[in-house]
Each structure stands twice: as C-alpha cells, then as structure tokens.
Amino acid sequence: MHRLLLLGLIVILAAGSSGISVVYDANEEFADWSWEAAGTDSDELYTVVFSPEEWAALEEELPANAGSLPEVDFGSEAAVVAYLGERPTGGYQVLVSRIAASTQETTIEIRRRSPGEHEMVTQAFTYPIDVVILPREIFANRKISFIGGQGEIIR
Q: Which of 83, 112, 113, 144 is disulfide-compatible with 45, CB 3.0–4.6 A?
C-alpha cells in the first residue's frame, strides 16, 4: 500500500515539474458534446495565424456567412483559429477549449460538437468557427499540435 502511495506521489510530483502550464482554458462544460464526422471534414481548418498577410488570406478564404474576424495586433499577438467548414445544418459547434505550453510544444485542444440524431436543428448551412487571441510568445520556438477532445491528433 505504501509503495502505491509513494508511486502516486512521485507521479504527481513529476507531472507538476514537467514545465507544462495551461495558458488558456475556455471553462466550458463538454460532458454532453459528441462528434460524428459528417464526411465533409476536408473544409476544417485548425491553425495559428502570426501575420496580417495570413489573416487577410484567411478572411478571403472564409465564406461571408462565417462572420467577421476580430482585430489582432500581430506585433504582440497570434490568433488560434478552429473552423469546421460548411455544415449542412445547425447544431454544430467548435471551441478552442484549452491551450497548454511547455518549453518545446504548445498543445491546442479543440472540442467539436455535431447534432444528435433526433435533435431539432436549423435547416440551413452553418459555419462554426472559434478564434482565440493570445500573446505570440506562447508559440515562440515551439511545435504546435492540435488535439481533439479524446486526445486524438487532428493536426
């Protein structure tokens, strides 16, 4: 029993000293979110934008129905973008849920939601998008990874 407690303490201490810190947390509840890929996932986009030129290109690429993008000061900020592309109905959502950084990597967790089988939804095309603006040093000299809610790599 003591060995298990000691092992648990070692694991907790190692996790605390790993140098990983949460730099953004959406503080949303995802227990009822589920994702069923609808076969149109080629339009999905997960990226971090670092320049006004990239931002302008993104604005050109997005349909007008996706809404306008916020202002970003690219001298000191970067924008994390999660976009599901065109979806056939309402009920789809995307959210940048958490961003954690270490000295070598920034991991961006994305939560996606598709409508339930019997859920009443808007019968119109939708364009779910989420943008989070953070200080650009969070991404400096680090590998950037996007993961889904189940830990799967999505980019």
A: 83
- What is the reported pTM? 0.83
Summarize pLDDT for 101-125 with one digit per residue, the tens: 999 999 999 999 999 989 999 999 9
- The answer to whether residue 85 is domain-embedded is yes
> Reduced to 3 states, what is the DSSP secondary structure of residue 15?
helix
Question: What is the arrangement of strands in the sheet containing 129-135, beginning at the earlier edge strand?
Answer: 45-49, 77-83, 129-135
Would strands 129-135 and 77-83 be described as parallel, antiparallel, or unpaired?
Answer: antiparallel
Maximum Cα interatomic distance, the chain, rounded to a whole number of Å: 61
Q: Which domain holds residue 121?
A: 18-147
The three-state DSSP-derived secondary structure of 48-117 is EECCHHHHHHHHHHCCHHHCCCCCCCCCCEEEEEEECCCECCCCCEEEEEEEEECCCEEEEEEEEECCCC
